[in-house]
Amino acid sequence: MIDAIKQFFDTRIAGDEKETADTGQHRLQLATAALLIEMAQADNQRHSMEFQAIHDGIMEVFDLSPEETAEIIELADEEAHEATDHFEFTQLINQQFGYDDKCRVVELLWRVCLADAEMDRYEEQLVRKIAELLHVQHSEFIAAKLRVQRAYSAASHLADFDDYE
Prior knowledge:
This protein is mainly alpha-helical. It has a single domain, classed as TerB-like. The protein contains 8 helices and no strands. Helix 2 (21-40) packs antiparallel against helix 3 (48-62), helix 2 packs across helix 4 and helix 3 packs antiparallel against helix 6 (99-114). The longest helix has 27 residues, at 138-164. This is TerB family tellurite resistance protein.
């Protein structure tokens, strides 16, 4: 199922017994990318704004190069098409990462969900389901949603302000 992601990890990231902070971040990014692709397709549409949110979020949060980001998104897109459920992705995240990183994943999911300024009921259900699978508390789930809504609202107001100049 997530063989391509595991292979990418094994050949590019794993190796030493010693794990660095960067290694952990890359592994989180790999599992997260597949979930973000699933999020972007939850409403059965592929909006460029949602894929831009995936790209920007991965680059920003995980500090990857544009080339690494593009390669990982491509792998994640292939895996998302083959996925039958989200358990394998969330299981990998649960095994490897702490609570704060799981909360970051939920926030990235909200960023993708709200990128097109429309929230389909299936998108919200998917964020909720993944948050539950990641054992993220409901209060953190809501807090992440509110942070993203405020950020998008502020960005929208700034864009409106730029139109008047």
